[in-house]
UniProtKB/TrEMBL annotation:
The keyword Transport applies. GO terms for cellular component: nuclear pore. Its main location: nucleus. Residues 797-827 form a coiled coil. It comes from Zea mays (Maize). Residues 323-347 are annotated as: Disordered. It comes from the Eukaryota. Residues 326-336 have a biased composition (Polar residues). It is found in: Nucleus. This is Nuclear pore complex protein NUP155. Keywords: Coiled coil, Nucleus, Transport.
Length: 852
């Protein structure tokens, strides 16, 4: 504005928000208190020759203005403010210099007066500080700057200069200026040292000699970090402020509609805005990392106290009051120098919760956490840029409805810090990789993986790179249908890559690809390697796992086992059509002829048995029995097959052991009274067949005897006498075979085993004969009672048969005989004699005489 004086000179008055701090307490530079900011304005007068006619702001270029509008469009001061983009900067300038000087250029004003045009450039606080570092400025001037703006704000400006975070036109900062700014940021005389809040007030409670003091309220002891930490927080928060709590994606809809399905998902930030912001965050993180690696500032002081790793990451003991360093660090004098009166007062006070060294270590840890947050944020911005370059809407279409909704609602904070953010990033990267390795891909995995590994390693690590390389090999192998040798080479390459990262691969999908390529070595070994990685110490097998984690780990291992089981089911034809339709993306496998199917099943079984995982073997054996592959199970089963069949077939039963010589066969072949369920019978039958296949004849005979004499708790599960007869007959055959083999090897065995089994078989024949006779009696009575004719006199027992009560008793006894095996005494006394089966009795006597 121009004044109303009649002189030829005018004054340009610039009114702006005051940036200087007002200190609440007088203090030295090294221990400056936190500054409070009052709302005030400063007025500057600039004389202008001639009479001023008008003045106008020089707005940023359209590209820069669009970038700023993209960043701050959803911030409070910009809500509802869209166009023109250039005027949006005026609102940011109105917020003051301190929160915007990292992103906005210096304000320029063109003045038009009677003498011509004049451009006025307003320096920001950071420009003043840069000029101080650029010349031979006295330290007192630097201290005055820190005192005026506060240690935190001044340290933040030092970071902007040292890390070169200023606006592009103002970023031409010499290395000497940058180094001076870095040294000022680390100077404890300027930024102070971490301390306990309230310690200054406590130390000033001393009274003059002879005086009396009621004391002060003791404040709760809290760590108060230095201005360097506060400056880092200010700088980081201002960089992340326009994106941290806002969604990263929005739905762009056609005009006049509000339906979500009518819109297209796009990134809220422009590519230029993300690039500039990512560059600034990366520069700040790089600066902090370089100072840490060089052990500058507090990093060097804390590292000089001892093990830097334990101090930085709490892996060892905290440095105690006895810790010291012989290095000439400016921090030593700041910590050790103390006024004698203060020493006397400190001796009277109770010991503080933290020593100076501990406070320094705490601040270093806090700064390291901020550095890692900045690094992660920069990687997130890089990932967003890469995704936006490949059409976000197309990549988002590959997500399910739930993930699609989460993506639209995802904030930058969640992308950086939450599990949902990690999951969505992984899904988007997966969609991006499919774009490259699919049939219509426009590049290679190596090309895109290099960008991801360099730009966002926390979202895409080495294991992801190997996984997608393997997928690329499998895609190429699937297209080599006419070149089996090349197809096998590519499948082998993919398998070798995945063996290095089994725990991080999506095996349910990847193994289906191998299955379609008939590369069953990968189908078996990859899931088993992952299951082993889930329980690397074999705690489940040894029974030493924490019960709280047992179910979770066991469920994850079973999911790995099911991949192998599903391959067997597919080869067997169980659920084949369902699994084919569910995996069209990996290519439908060609039909398998019976000979090839048998070969592949054999290959899977041999590979599975070689793996030393007994829990997996149990799942394998159960699946083979379920699929009816008993012959394959007995032929290719492992050494633990017998113990599995024993435990599964007869719980709470003593272990069945193969006996090479039977010196007390009758004692070893005793009947066990524990009932055996029908579901367990199949395992015992397989165990008997296993012993036969292995040539363990006596053990096989024992199992057949157990099956023949098995007790059942449910009458519906009772085997027929014919089935029991088959078991006993097989037991006799195995016992005789054992005797023949013993004779040929000149190792005779006790013949009592064969005699015992043959005797049991003979008794069973009598039992079957008696049962048949009793059933015939019952049938005759029923026929006579239903017929009107009188019975003929050809049968000597017509009176007994005509008795309905006797017929009912015969029927009940026949039913009893079908339930279990009876002894010869029971058959003679309880069945043959009461029903006058004299022919059977004669057979009993004759057989007994022969045996004697």
């Amino acid at each position: 504005m121009s004044d109303s004086s009649a002189t030829a000179m005018s004054s340009l008055l610039a009114v702006q928000k005051g940036s200087a701090a007002q200190l609440s307490l007088p203090s030295t530079f090294g221990t400056a208190s936190r500054a409070s900011r009052a709302l005030r304005e400063t007025v500057s007068a600039l004389p202008v020759e001639g009479r001023m006619l008008c003045a106008s702001d020089v707005l940023p270029l359209p590209d820069a203005a669009y970038m700023l509008q993209s960043l701050y469009a959803d911030v409070e001061c910009f809500t509802g403010f869209r166009k023109p983009f250039e005027k949006a900067c005026i609102k940011l300038w109105a917020k003051g210099d301190l929160p915007t000087q990292h992103i906005l250029p210096r304000r320029r004003v063109v003045v038009f007066n009677t003498m011509g045009l004049m451009e006025v450039i307003f320096n920001r606080p950071v420009d003043i500080l840069r000029k101080l570092f650029d010349g031979n400025t006295l330290r007192s001037q630097i201290e005055e700057f820190f005192n005026r703006f506060g240690a935190g704000e001044a340290a933040a400006m030092c970071l902007m200069i040292a890390a070169k975070l200023l606006y592009a036109e103002d970023s031409l900062i010499s290395n000497s200026v940058s180094e001076k700014a870095a040294e000022a940021f680390e100077d404890p005389g300027l930024v102070g040292m971490p301390q306990i809040a309230g310690t200054t007030a406590l130390s000033n409670t001393r009274t003059q000699a002879g005086g009396f003091s009621m004391g002060q309220v003791v404040q709760e002891a809290e760590p108060l970090f230095s201005g360097a930490y506060e400056g880092l927080c200010l700088c980081s928060s201002r960089l992340l402020y326009p994106i941290w709590e806002f969604p990263i994606m929005v739905i762009r809809r056609p005009a006049g509609t509000n339906k979500c399905e009518d819109g297209v998902i796009v990134c809220r930030l422009s590519a230029g805005a993300m690039e500039i912001l990512e560059s600034k965050i990366h520069s700040l993180e790089t600066f902090l990392r370089s100072r840490r690696n060089k052990r500058r500032g507090l990093y060097g002081y804390v590292a000089g106290l001892g093990d830097s790793g334990s101090i930085l990451y709490k892996t060892g003991p905290i440095i105690g009051p006895g810790g010291h360093s012989n290095g000439r660090s400016p921090y030593n004098s700041q910590i050790q120098d103390m006024d004698p009166a203060d020493k006397s007062a400190s001796n009277k006070k109770p010991r503080l919760l933290y020593t100076s060294a501990e406070l320094a270590a705490m601040e270093v840890r806090a700064m390291e956490c901020l550095r890692r947050l900045l690094r992660r944020s920069g990687e997130a911005l890089f990932l967003l840029q890469l995704i936006c370059q490949h059409n976000v809407a197309r990549l988002a279409q590959t997500l399910g409805n739930d993930l699609h909704k989460k993506l639209v609602q995802l904030t930058f904070h969640q992308l950086v810090c939450s599990e949902d953010g990690d999951q969505l990033a992984m899904c988007l990267i997966s969609a991006l990789m499919e774009y490259y390795i699919g049939p219509e891909g426009r590049g290679t995995v190596e090309e895109i993986s290099t960008k991801l590994k360099e730009g966002c390693p926390s979202y895409f690590n080495e294991s992801d790179y190997k996984y997608y390389l393997a997928v690329e090999c499998l895609e190429r192998a699937a297209s080599m249908a006419n070149n089996p040798d090349e197809r096998d080479i590519l499948a082998r390459d993919a398998f070798n890559l995945l063996t290095k990262i089994p725990e991080s691969a999506d095996l349910s999908a990847i193994c289906k690809r191998f299955e379609n390529l008939r590369f069953y070595e990968a189908v078996v070994r990859l899931p088993l390697q992952k299951a082993q990685a889930l329980d690397s110490n074999a705690d489940i097998t040894n029974g030493q796992i924490d019960p709280r984690h047992h179910d979770t780990i066991m469920l994850q291992r079973e999911q790995c086992y099911e991949i192998v089981m599903n391959a067997l089911r597919t080869l067997k034809g169980v659920g084949h059509s369902r699994m084919q339709s569910a995996d069209k993306s990996s290519g439908v496998a060609t039909a398998v002829d019976p000979a090839s199917r048998t070969k592949y099943i054999k290959q899977i079984l041999q590979l599975s048995v070689q793996w030393p995982d007994t829990v997996f073997h149990e799942h394998l054996y159960k699946t083979l029995i379920e699929l009816g592959l008993e012959n394959e199970l007995l032929e290719y089963g492992g050494s633990d097959l017998a113990s599995f069949l024993q435990s599964a077939g007869r719980k709470h039963q003593e272990e069945v052991r193969a006996v090479s010589s039977v010196t007390s066969g009758a004692a070893k072949l005793h009947d066990l009274s524990a009932p055996i369920l029908t579901s367990q019978t199949k395992y015992l039958e397989l165990l008997a067949r296993y012993y036969v296949r292995k040539g363990e004849r006596i053990a096989a005979a024992r199992m057949f005897l157990i099956l023949a004499e098995r007790q059942c708790s449910n009458s519906e599960e009772v085997p027929t006498l014919d089935k029991r007869y088959e078991y006993l007959r097989d037991a006799v055959l195995q016992a005789k075979s054992a005797g023949i083999e013993a004779d040929s090897s000149r190792k005779p065995i006790d013949s009592s085993t064969v005699d015992l089994l043959e005797g049991k078989l003979t008794v069973l024949r009598f039992q079957m004969q008696i049962k048949q006779e009793l059933e015939l009696m019952t049938a005759r009575v029923e026929n006579i009672s239903s017929s009107s004719e009188s019975p003929s006199g050809l049968f000597p027992r017509d009176n007994i048969l005509a008795d309905a009560e006797a017929a009912k008793a015969a029927k009940d006894k026949a039913k009893e005989l079908s339930l279990n095996l009876k002894s010869i005494t029971q058959l003679y006394n309880d069945y043959a004699v009461p029903f006058e089966l004299w022919e059977v009795c004669l057979f009993f006597v004759h057989s007994f005489a022969v045996s004697q």
